[in-house]
Amino acid sequence: MANNYYDPSDLRKFGNITEWSEELGNKFFEYYGKVFEEGALSAREKSLIALAVAHVVKCPYCIDAYTKDGLQRGITKEEMMEAVHAGAAIESGATLVHGVQMMNKYNKLSM
Amino acid sequence: MAVKSLKARHNALAEHNRQLEILNGGVFADGELPYFKDKLADLGQYPFRPNKLEILQINVGYMCNQVCEHCHVDAGPDRKEIMTRETMQQCLEVIKNTGAHTLDLTGGAPEMNPNFRWFVEEASKAGIKDFIVRSNLTIIRANKKYHDLPDFFKKHNVHVISSMPHYTRGKTDRQRGDGVFDKSIKALQELNAVGYGMPDSDLRLDLVYNPSGAFLPADQEAMERDFKKALKEDFNIQFHHLFAITNLPIARFLDYLIASENYEDYMYSLVEAYNPAAVANVMCTNTISVSWDGWLYDCDFNQMLGLKVASKVKHIKDYNEDLLNDRDIVISQHCYGCTAGAGSSCQGTVA
Question: The Carboxymuconolactone decarboxylase-like domain covers which part of the protein (chain A) (predicted)?
């Protein structure tokens, strides 16, 4: 076993999770595949959403995978970076909107 | 961008054997990844056999005005391998009698062969149904002696297939060299001006897209939609079809993969994307590739690896279609490049 938590070559082994729980693993991959098919949103748009979420959840495997997927789809680096900013804006907004809770609590506790 | 061919740089990968050692060794010899022949054996298709011959692809020389980073031919201005008129004459004899419906001229930049125009004029008399010239576009703008190529192609009803790595300047120039994008756009506009690529035109203009890096092409139809929209909106350019072709780990692309430490991951990507349904459409099943010096190969990629046809007939001067069609196709691990995803074909055929 590697001496670090993240090993890029582990991404290739993702499919192996079905070995220890075949039914759930297969259901997940079937669902995953279906989600990224062309639908009301194009596969290209979904790839950009996935890239943004990959950054927000800070998944290095997903970042590798969806950067490569974006390149394959001809998505430009400007589009990719804007998607990352969209994710980052929501993430920082999610932090900052809790500031309202802080203000509410502050005001409640203060005379 | 490279300025010289691997050959001129005396790079070890200019040698066929070194490339084949890499393709047959490493992750394949270790058993981490299966050999291509094992995949064919699983389908009951090893040894791999051709179907009816449909395409004669003739490489008229490795000289090119560009030195593209991904070039599997290792072409460039310093390459002196040019088909002679004598070999062209031997090709013409074959073209007159072949059962193939498509003649496909490639290079290098085929237009740089001094006998190119004579050869096209003679070959067009043979009445081949589809006569393709693979033009890199910039050649049309490279020198004024090439400026009339759109009219020349039109006169001989040549089907033009051109490389266009991306519809944005940055990606194109990184792969193919500074200024390539602007020259390509100008050349496409000139081809459009004489009627090439227009929606109802018989003058066929197709584009070839290769990924500009260590990744595979996406769905051909989706890319075609993106290219058509962007080129029409930004430059008022029209074309018929886009062929998304996977880069094969040969010559300069192999050198790039190794130097950028992407080789293993790329081979994993190719093997993971292996699609048994794409095997039926690979071009070696309906093509014979002829090199500048008249040798025969299963495809242009095998030509660059020095893998001649496994047949008694090995040279255009001894050409015999029946004998040739009764052969086993020579394969190695680069073949995964043509069976990845929906498949990849010089003629745009996908699974």
Answer: 23-101
